[in-house]
Design goal:
Pur/Pyrimidine_PRTase; alpha/beta; two-stranded antiparallel ribbon; 188 residues; Rossmann fold; 31% helix; 10 strands; binds guanosine-5'-monophosphate; 6-stranded mixed beta sheet; 6 helices
Length: 188
């Protein structure tokens, strides 16, 4: 997606060979015009999948997921990284944070997904696929089915795509980074 690639090149910061910072339009400040275009792109790609719910993980997946949810006219659920005392019937799983390099517990309220739900998972980044695996676990604990994976920025030099594709899912990434070297991005 050209608009997104331009935003990454012009407004992103390469922290090191593995980590990209996009706080100015996605991870801290949100560029709503860009998010709207991102939402439309996901909606167009997954339009034949009869998606009933979109699932993401707080907090950085929420913006692209909500704009996609608006376009597809389906609810958006964000999985939580800590359990609020108000949860009635939570499901839990263990997750691993790529950026924080530590484990955490991910949870959601069981009632928001059921066996009739066809779920599109959306996230800001795909690195090694651990966030997806944890989300898939919770979605399956609720009896629902994953029908697609939408990623805003994929780092194709890490193993996430292969891991998710091996499970048979359609992974649609809007920007695919082959490498980050010498402060430059090489696109796939
Ligand atoms: P994975 O679980 O696929 O290894 O990593 C994906 C998650 O880690 C995403 O939800 C994202 O929040 C975070 N992440 C992975 N790589 C990057 C990166 O280069 N920059 C930022 N800002 N977050 C990342």
């Amino acid at each position: 997606m050209k608009l997104l690639q331009e935003a990454i090149e012009q407004r992103g910061t390469i922290i090191n060979d593995d980590i990209l910072k996009v706080d100015s339009f996605l991870n801290h400040q949100i560029d709503c015009r860009l998010m709207k275009a991102i939402g439309q792109e996901f909606a167009a790609h997954f339009q034949d999948q009869n998606v009933t719910k979109i699932v993401t993980i707080e907090s950085s997946g929420i913006a692209p997921a909500v704009f996609a949810g608006d376009c597809m006219d389906v609810p958006v659920i964000f999985m939580k990284k800590s359990e609020p005392s108000t949860m009635l019937d939570p499901v839990y799983t263990e997750a691993f944070s790529f950026t924080k390099n530590r484990k955490y517990t991910l949870c959601m309220e069981r009632q928001f997904l059921s066996k009739n739900d066809r779920v599109l998972f959306i996230d800001d980044f795909l690195a090694n696929g651990q966030a997806f695996l944890s989300a898939e676990d919770l979605i399956q604990q609720c009896g629902a089915h994953v029908v697609g994976v939408g990623i805003v920025i994929e780092k194709s030099f890490q193993k996430g795509r292969a891991l998710i594709e091996e499970k048979g899912y359609d992974v649609y990434s809007l920007a695919r980074i082959q490498a980050m070297k010498d402060n430059k991005i090489l696109w796939k």
